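Today's session is about reading a structure prediction critically. Students often jump straight to the picture, but the first step is always the sequence itself: look for stretches that repeat, for charged clusters, for runs of hydrophobic residues. Only then move on to the predicted structure, which in these notes is written as discrete structure tokens rather than atom positions. Here is the chain we will use throughout the hour.
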Amino acid sequence: MSEANWYVVHTYSGYENKVKVDIEKTIENRNLQDQILEVSVPLESVIEIKNGVEKKADKKMFPGYVLIHMFMNDDTWYVVRNTRGVTGFVGPGSKPVPLTEEEMQNLGFKNEEVIVGFEVGDTVVVTSGAWKDTVGAIKSINQGKKTITINVEMFGRETPVELNFSEIKKM
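Below is the predicted structure for this chain, in token form.
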């Protein structure tokens, strides 16, 4: 499989967050977590002064655009392109052009190399969240999303739970 790249998707103005949520739902429904790694609507913090009162607010850096980190193939192209509110990928014609590493760094996205201290099969304990103090064996590791999946027993059956790296520790 080729390398995952960041692509820019043009949306109807004001639909950026709706597109993000819809794509994330489709990723989950079609089990594409290993192909579409991240969907982002970049925000910047600004201070607005209204009636003499300072108020901190988040504004979209690129209104009308959503950034997607994914492996480009027919399935992922189809899913993104046919999401309600998406008008198309940025690029000539119907050929999406990935952002370069330099462009991503200029946007503030750093390509962090994460070194994971555990492997599939290791037993871990959850340190925070709803599953705190739950013990489970790692079933899968997703480097791109920085998550692991463990099975926990719920209502007498094994249920997969996805957790962030920061929520677990090795036993």
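Discussion point for the tutorial: Residues 44 and 59 are 5 Å apart (CA to CA).
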